[in-house]
Amino acid sequence: MAEQLRGSLDTMLHLPHVTPALYEFRLHLDKVSRSYWPGLFHCYDVPGLPRTNNELESRFRDTQRRLLRTTGQKGLTQRTLQRQGAWELLPRSPTEAQVLDAVCHTPPEDLAQERQRFAAHRERFRMQSRSLRQTQAQFDQLRQKWSVLQALSMPVSFLRILPPCVR
Length: 167
Description:
By secondary structure, the chain is mostly helical. The chain has three domains: 1-71, no CATH class; 95-125; 132-161. It is 70% helix and 0% strand. It is built from nine helices and no strands. The protein is elongated and about 80 Å long. The termini are far apart.
């Protein structure tokens, strides 16, 4: 494939008597092809590697469509994928009954463990709140934790010289 493209580009470059627009186009095409050449044909070197990522892109589009349908919010799909994880991208059963059947066959211990892992994953994003009230409350909690840590690690004489807002 690479040899065929290189041959076609060389043929175009050596065509005599071309218009200025075609001359510029073939120079541009040659320049762009040379810059992308090292990674342009890697799919032919690896057996089973698809030439395009259209199938993968289709899965992302399907996921976005499904999340839009279930949440009703267009901007929520990216946040959902970032916060809730890649499980959104896994193939799903087409009906809720099949999903429920699959969950019923899952051992309760495995389900509890996955729920714990998922809760820990979501907890990491709680500090990224956009609510001013929640942000202030989180900041107050952090300030309180910090003051406890300071009190444990600093001598009492040093605490007396700190301003009250820091203590």
